Amino acid sequence: MTLLKYDPVYVQITKADAAQILGITTRELDRRRVSDERCPPGFRDWTTFPPATRFRLTDIYRYSESIIKEAKPAPVELLLSQPENSEHL
Predict the structure, then answer these.
(1) In angstroms, how far is CA 53 from the centroid of its own chain?
(2) DSSP structural state of residue 53
(3) Which of 1, 5, 62, 68 shows its CA 20 to 30 Å from the CA of 86?
(4) CA distance 3 to 62
(5) pLDDT digits (tens, 9 = 90+) for 8-47
(6) 43: left (phi over 0), alpha (psi -120 to 50) or beta
(7) Band of the pLDDT at 82, cuts 50, 70, 90?
(8) Which domains does the chain have, with CATH numbers?
(9) What share of the chain in percent tops pLDDT 90?
(10) Contact, 59 vs 40, CB < 8 A?
(11) Rg (Cα) of the chain, in Å, rounded?
(12) Both ends of the chain: CA-CA distance in Å?
């Protein structure tokens, strides 16, 4: 996926690409579209049959950023950030 030379506001990506950017499966993306109000719903591309679900790249970036902002450190990161544990590395 080489999208760097295009403005993400105008780039449409497939559901598989959106899931890959988010690091989740397409099934998980479908679940989040229903259960997470921050998750972009996407839109249908009716030029193909069956119609494909597509997403605007900026919407996926914005959703990813909101997930990252709410993320908590993994337990290993917490353990390594404590001074008494860093001297054993």
Answers:
(1) 15
(2) E
(3) 68
(4) 16
(5) 888 999 999 999 999 999 999 999 999 999 999 999 988 8
(6) beta
(7) confident
(8) 12-86 (1.10.1660)
(9) 61
(10) yes
(11) 18
(12) 37
Quick check: 2 pLDDT over 80? no
- Provide the token pair at 5: 């030379």
Q: How far apart are CA 83 and CA 80, in angstroms?
A: 8
Chain segment 41-75, per-residue pLDDT in tens: 999 988 888 999 999 999 999 999 999 999 887 77
Strands (E) across the chain are located at: 12-14, 43-45, 52-56
Give the full edge-to-edge strand order of the sheet including 43-45. 12-14, 52-56, 43-45
